[in-house]
Amino acid sequence: MSTTFCITLFSSWLLLASIVGAQSRPLDVRSFGAKGDGVSDISQALLSAWKAACNSPKPSTIVIPRGTFGLLQATLEGPCKAPIELQNFSFNFLNNSIISGIASLNSKLFHMNILGCNNVTLSRLTITAPGTSLNTDGIHVGRSSGVNITDSTIGTGDDCVSLGDGSKQVSITNVVCGPGHGISIGSLGRYKNEEPVVGVFVRNCTLINTLTGVRVKSWPSATTGAATDVHFDDITMRNVTSPIVIDQEYCPNNQCTLGAPSRVKISKVSFNNIRGTSASALAVKLVCSKTFPCEGVEIGDIDLAYHGSLGNITTNCANVQPTFMGRQNPPICAKNNAAQSS
């Protein structure tokens, strides 16, 4: 069934996470007539549960239990008398949908998981988790096309936005990220039968106190994959530890064998008009695969400064020969260029 989903939230009290002190009995949407048969529309049931929670003087919890529920449209309006927690809320296999005005607080894992969706817009989101919280990606997109993420503020303990395999034609604009691990494609190449990432456009975003800025990462493994037509434009970095990264030796917690080169092909990637400050001396890292070197990497108008005590600002490049346009500060791949000309 092709499902159109539109949820509009006007209540500043909505929290998609656990709320300390919530004492009211959970409101299960099935008690209001919802059926998890994958066909029946639960719009009215969800609205009824929302009204009951909204009128409660105590914090309330609305539960959408495990199962497949069809939802056409629900307008959840406030103001409400107390905070509302909405559990088990994910967005899978949606078409032509708008998700707007949601605040997600302290999710245990991914705040939002976008899977198998087409033509979906996420806007005016506020996602919050401590910088020390593990695996709390703000928005993870996988095997979806036509995804637009815009006008949002995301702070987590992992990637603010992460794009998994099969992400196609994704636009990320006007997003403020921090704390967290920045905006990342990947990691790719860890699992069999991964689909390529094609057409990613990250524009007019600001990253503040993040571990990385904009990044493409893949595992060193025998699994094949691809990421192509990826563009990062007009990005502001504020005290970002690793502002610009291509890392095809991504191996957290020694979970892989670095001796096996990545077989993910990265091509047609551009970094343009990226400025601000790096929190480390190594501001740019472009480390590609020995087996499949990066191709078509373009770098233009980079202006990054480092004011720490660990020496001069530097870059590290391997298995890549970028095309340069405009100004590069610091000089990108300067050692590589010197070696090639000697």
From TrEMBL:
The keyword Cell wall biogenesis/degradation applies. The active site is at residue 181. InterPro entries: Glyco_hydro_28 (IPR000743), PbH1 (IPR006626), Pectin_lyas_fold (IPR012334), Pectin_lyase_fold/virulence (IPR011050). Keywords: Cell wall, Cell wall biogenesis/degradation, Glycosidase, Hydrolase, Secreted, Signal. The keyword Cell wall biogenesis/degradation applies. It holds the Pfam family Glyco_hydro_28. It is found in: Secreted, Cell wall. Residues 1-24 form the signal peptide. It comes from the Eukaryota. Its main location: secreted. PANTHER family: PTHR31375. Belongs to the glycosyl hydrolase 28 family. This is Polygalacturonase isoform X2. It comes from Coffea arabica. The gene is LOC113709031.
